[in-house]
């Protein structure tokens, strides 16, 4: 059941010049499934901005945020004790499977995967990829719940190349959960068609309402026509996407 709350900022931690970790106290503990997101009403920004729930502990939610524009910059400038309006949990998260799990996150696409690694248990393999080492921000947090492999395109951390360089041999007994830039998701989609493993993809779309009302975030799907990323996703089964 989604909630609209006035949440108190309890921590704003700049991880580097491009990323921040924002924790808010919502005042109430609500069950959150990994892959679900929240929308934040940033002061003096017209539309709410969507962010994956990176971690949920008791009444607290944490977001891993890449600073890309005016709204995210304003989030970085918030102070502890300020209040912010949050609607959560939104959308459908990952469908947890008993298959051997591999989690793949590109840049801030790693955000929903921490909660997923916690909820899956059993220390799954997490592959974190980025353009440079600055995109790999939560390695230690992931290492508490998962085996972590790192790739960077410039070789500044981990293996040089794309996340696909660290993928293990994938079979129909495996499930890959992925979030990140569309080229990454599309390359996993092609691989899943070839190797027949299960693939769940968390998509991004520009969102206005985040509630299924404005149809600003529709994607085309195979069986059911157009669906809203905000309400029917953001996680979709790869075979449902006509890529
Ligand atoms: C379901 C969902 C979950 C998300 N989770 C996270 C997350 O955990 N961490 C995170 O850092 N970001 C996440 N995003 C993206 C985040 O919402 C945007 O980066 C943010 O809204 C940008 O706000 P802004 O005002 O700073 O940028 P704007 O000034 O609005 O835009 C700056 C630039 O970012 C681009 N942009 C804006 N919104 C999006 C978007 N939704 N997708 C792709 N590009 C966008 C714009 O085209 C523009 O080039 C998520 C998006 C969705 C839809
Ligand atoms: S953002 Fe309005 S319908 Fe999805």
Automatic annotation (TrEMBL):
An annotated Gene Ontology molecular function: 2 iron, 2 sulfur cluster binding
Domain of life: Bacteria
Cofactors, names only: [2Fe-2S] cluster; FAD
Binding note for cofactor: Binds 1 [2Fe-2S] cluster per subunit.
Pfam families, A to Z: DHODB_Fe-S_bind
Alphabetically ordered keywords of this record: 2Fe-2S, Electron transport, FAD, Flavoprotein, Iron, Iron-sulfur, Metal-binding, Transport
Coiled coil: none
Biological process (GO), any one: pyrimidine nucleotide biosynthetic process
InterPro entries: Cyt_c3_hydrogenase_gsu, Dihydroorotate_DH_ele_sf, Dihydroorotate_DH_Fe-S-bd, FAD-bd_FR_type, FNR_nucleotide-bd, PyrK_electron_transfer, Riboflavin_synthase-like_b-brl
Chain residues that bind FAD: 49-52, 71-72
FAD-binding FR-type domain span: 2-96
Binding site for [2Fe-2S] cluster: 209, 214, 217, 230
Protein family: Belongs to the PyrK family.
Protein name: Dihydroorotate dehydrogenase electron transfer subunit
Organism field: Candidatus Termititenax persephonae
Lineage: Bacteria, Bacillati, Candidatus Margulisiibacteriota, Candidatus Termititenacia, Candidatus Termititenacales
Gene: pyrK
